[in-house]
Amino acid sequence: MKTYHIYYFHNELPEVWDTLVKHDIFLQSNYLKALENASPNNIQWFYVGVFNDSELIGIAIIQRVQLYLKDMFRQTKVSCLKELFRNVVSKIIKGNILVVGNLTHTGQHGIFFQRDKLALSDYLNVVHEAIEELRNHIKQNQQKTIRALMFKDYYQEDVIHNENDFFSKNKLHKVTVQPNMVMHLEPNWLSNADYVKDFNKKYRDRYKRAKKKLGDIVCSELSIDAIKSQSGKLHSLYLNVSYNAKFNTFFLPENHFYSLKLQLKDSFKIFGYFLHGELVGFYTLILNGQHLETYFLGYDEKHQYPNQLYLNMLYDMAKFAIENKFETIIYARTAMEIKSSVGAIPKPMLVYVKHTNNLLNSILKQLFKLMDPTQKWEQRHPFE
């Protein structure tokens, strides 16, 4: 008999949870503990275990996210018509949504089950039952009404797209969102020099210019003590970047990076860029099996363009991956063109969304075009 259980805190999870999800650090209890202790203040976490009798055979990560879209849009210049649409949409879609997945990180890090023990259609139906129970629980215990539901971030080849009956029955729309930028490391890249050598002349020269422009800035990994003592500065640099985004659904708290280091230890790394001892930029990495996942970063704007900090970060991420023999680098969303210039390739992603009000459900595709627009950008080909 297929059943489910909802867990409200990471310390309630059964012991076998981590064994089932050992392939993905974003589903494991240490990561979930770190996020619970340092989550954006508008995100609450829930965990669903799917059972065959008493055996755990599947899991789902679900977030309750409070979205007030008018406050989430950055002050960017848009047409009067688009501004009007933003205001209308903000009034309609404000409130709480449930996300099957992880809004704080790009990729499918929300569902997993043993395919030899459960059909995908049965798994999705059990998870949907849990979602309905969660909606009622949130309404009764927190006096919050869930306005929308999202199944987040699936590649085009994911078998979940075969489950048309499930998504149609539950009135979930398939929507294309910005691609995930992924770089597969070549077998002949035994060192960073091999990677740079494979660039064509234009991009090899660009690499050399970027390194030269760093000047006196040096990069080094931060210890856990340094992360703790620099938490305020790290957060300030992160906010510099986050505030410049056109749209943001959350802001990390100041203790976020320290909490991750505390729980993930060597699987989480922060590299800082220092100019005469002052921290002027940083990037973070999460080591996820054979995948190197780039995480949040930050920089002092006055050093970004003169010293090409962001481009140097992308190069240094690649260097770390090559030297530590990862198979892929997940560069995530945004800044697609510059990421493609270091070798990343766009992998299209889709989400499934619905509004609980049937009359409003039809506008969600237009909403997502506004929230996560298809940007016009030119893919670079540095190795051709």
Write the layout of secondary structure elements.
Elements: E1 2-7, H1 17-20, H2 29-37, E2 43-52, E3 55-67, H3 69-72, H4 80-93, E4 95-100, E5 111-113, H5 120-142, E6 146-155, H6 164-169, E7 173-184, H7 192-197, H8 201-213, E8 218-221, H9 224-229, H10 231-242, H11 256-264, E9 268-275, E10 278-288, E11 291-299, H12 301-304, H13 309-323, E12 328-332, H14 336-340, E13 345-355, H15 358-361, H16 364-371
Parallel strand pairs: 4-6, 11-12
Antiparallel strand pairs: 1-2, 2-3, 3-4, 3-5, 6-13, 7-12, 7-13, 8-9, 9-10, 10-11
Helix pairs in contact: 2-11
Report on this model:
- With 384 residues, the protein is an alpha+beta fold.
- The chain folds into 2 domains: 2-178 and 348-371, Aminopeptidase, CATH 3.40.630.30; 186-326, Aminopeptidase (3-Layer(aba) Sandwich), CATH 3.40.630.30.
- It contains 16 helices and 13 strands.
- Strands 1, 2, 3, 4, 5, 6, 7, 8, 9, 10, 11, 12 and 13 form a 13-stranded mixed sheet that branches.
- α2 (29-37) runs antiparallel to α11 (256-264).
- The chain is globular.
- The N and C termini lie far apart (55 Å).
